[in-house]
Amino acid sequence: MAEKIKVRDRILNVATDLFYRQGYNQTGINQIIAEADIAIGSLYNHFPSKGDLLVAYLEKQEEEWFAAFEHFSKGANTPREKIFRFIDFRIEQQQVSAFCGCPFIKIVAELGQDDDKIHKLVEAHKDKQRVMLQSWFKQLDYEGIDKKLLADNLFLMVEGATISTTISRNTQALESVKKFLRKLL
Amino acid sequence: MAEKIKVRDRILNVATDLFYRQGYNQTGINQIIAEADIAIGSLYNHFPSKGDLLVAYLEKQEEEWFAAFEHFSKGANTPREKIFRFIDFRIEQQQVSAFCGCPFIKIVAELGQDDDKIHKLVEAHKDKQRVMLQSWFKQLDYEGIDKKLLADNLFLMVEGATISTTISRNTQALESVKKFLRKLL
DNA sequence: CAATAAATAGATAGATCTATCTATTTTTAA
DNA sequence: TTAAAAATAGATAGATCTATCTATTTATTG
To answer: Does A39 share its domain with A60?
Structure first.
């Protein structure tokens, strides 16, 4: 028999989908409880407010990002391979989400700099990605431009290309980064 | 005597500030009319709906972007100088706005891909910037990586760095792009 | 000056939103 | 089996939001 998904998870799954695709402000509590098919009381039992649900959503995204990437990059042994897997991972993310962009960037764009908790969460997430890239470049056998500078700017390129894919609705920009990097390394 | 600012312009100026800083969904009509100190009837005389006000806001941003850049880059004669002025311009934009990011990217992040008119407006704006960069690189005396590829990826870097400045609240990322480009060119 | 247009104040419709509450039923565990 | 916990339905408070409307005043222009 089918494993029954717990109420809390149903809420979080639906909220994740809607916050990401529609945006936080454009998603109402009523839509969440309707699509999750749960009672409004249950929602407020698990999450004291919509803001708490937002935090849970982002914490889940943070956790799942690194888990998913670890799985995706399995088999990449050299630092060079890992770097390219990083780009490919973000290409795939955009493809499966129909070019919805990065949930962390989206939420900062939407809420601005007022909400400090959210802001710090996003900052920490992006830093972790950048540091990860830096460590691979450090291990890389390469004599050219300063490797840390290269890592930082590759990260920026990928960030910009991710935005660009949501605007153009295709992977062109991220492919362009790959092409550029192949010429450099 | 002081030139009286027309009602329509007062509305648009206030809306511009609020849409940009607070976000579109987080700015209500009532706040706009209060800060612009005009009657609600006047607003709906000039703009049939909040959505029309949004369009006017973006069209104004588009127009002002290129006018402001033209002024900012006056005196830059070589393509190389123009390219660096482009980065410096975007650094200055972020500094004067207290790292609020790019209004075009923000609105896409907020509204998603549903609103086709807005989406196309943003796409056209970003394309114009990219094409501008491409033309300077084309004129550039440089023998290295494919110049169009370089232009496209510099643009992506700057886009990513702009996002990054709103997250870190400093110009580090954009400065890093400059440093990287100095090594390349 | 007179006629037209533009702006104002302010009430209000009507929808939507977050959150709370009560009363009841279902599920879980001891 | 029984007591406690979790989930449900559904009403509703109370705030907020976009937009419309009326009635009046202020500016503009021929």
So the answer is: no
Query: Residue A176 is which amino acid?
Result: S
Q: Which residue of A has its CA nearest to B172?
A: A152
What are the tens digits of pLDDT across the range B3-32?
A: 578 999 999 999 999 999 999 999 999 999
Reported as a pLDDT band with limits 50, 70 and 90, residue A143 is confident
Print the domain residue range for B40: 1-48
Which among B122, B149, B176 is the nearest to A152, CB-wise? B176
- Are B69 and B2 found together in one domain? no
Q: Are residues B36 and B92 in the same domain?
A: no
Nucleic strand C near CB of residue A30 (< 7 Å): yes
The CA-atom distances, in angstroms, between B82 and each of A137, B144, B173 are: 31, 19, 19
Band (pLDDT 50/70/90 cuts) for residue A144 is confident
Calpha distance B19→B32 (Å, rounded) = 10
Same structural domain, A40 and A118: no
The size of the A-B interface in CB pairs under 8 A is: 138
| Overall domain count for chain A | 2
The CA-atom distances, in angstroms, between A41 and each of A29, A33, A38, A55, A56 are: 11, 10, 8, 19, 18
* Residues of B in Cβ contact (< 8 Å) with A123: 167-168
* CA gap B114, B25 in Å, rounded: 15
Mutation site for B-interface testing, chosen from A100, A110, A150 by largest number of B Cβ within 10 Å: A110
A6 with A23, same domain: the answer is yes
The whole-angstrom separation of Cα B42 and Cα B28 is 15
